[in-house]
Amino acid sequence: MKTTITLSAILAALAFSACKESATTATSEQAIAPDPVLERFFTDEPIADARQITAVRATVKPGDGITLTGLVMGRTKVFVDGRASFVLGDRTTLTPCSDMGEDDHCPTPWDACCDSKEDLLNGIASIQIVGEDGRVLSGNIKGTKGLKELSKVTVTGTVAEQSTADSLIVNATKIHVGEP
Predict the structure, then answer these.
(1) How many CA atoms lie within 13 A of 123 on its CB side?
(2) Distance between CA 48 and CA 166 in Å, rounded?
């Protein structure tokens, strides 16, 4: 649980760092080998009945089963180094900079830097894979089954006990990369 709380604090600290950060954080093209332990949480089959983050955020509570869909976006750094965790953004609320119509608008188009702080807070969820002990698994989830910044993702899991009204955290049990 301590790791989960620490992970949540790290994700919160990354909030609103937007385009002002160095372009060296742009890592979408870095090749990282997939982790076979994490691959077992991924499915090639589309997941049905997915909802948007903003549609469920106000009504879900820790322990609830949930299926969300969105894009890997909402922060400059959407993957936590060495941990099975990433940020999922609500595509109906947040706009990747790559959709702004300017090719060189932003070096990290997944950060949604042009969206308001309120939209960013309401439109993201932290997705993590935890072990039987409740701790976030180690390993790099980026690259697993093609997962990268701006990937379309559907996640099924349980709202984590550490989740709050300001920080939606989902313990994923199944992840699909691609159209839901």
Answers:
(1) 25
(2) 26
Q: Which residues are CB-contacts of 11 (< 8 A; sequence separation ≥ 6)?
A: 75, 80, 85, 87, 126, 167
Strand-strand pairing, 152-159 and 169-177? antiparallel
Looking at residue 83, what DSSP letter applies?
B
In this structure, what DSSP letter does residue 51 have?
A: B
Q: What is the pLDDT of residues 40-57, one digit of tens each?
A: 999 999 999 999 999 999
Output Rg (C-alpha) for the chain, integer angstroms. 15
Give 99-155 pLDDT, tens digit per residue. 877 766 788 999 999 899 999 999 999 999 999 999 999 998 999 999 999 999 999
- Cβ atoms of 35 and 140 closer than 8 Å: yes
Angle at 52 between CA 159 and CA 161, to 5 degrees: 10
CA dihedral defined by 165, 168, 171, 177, rounded to 10 degrees?
Answer: 150
The predicted model scores a pTM of: 0.82
Q: Pull the structure tokens for residue 84.
A: 């099975």
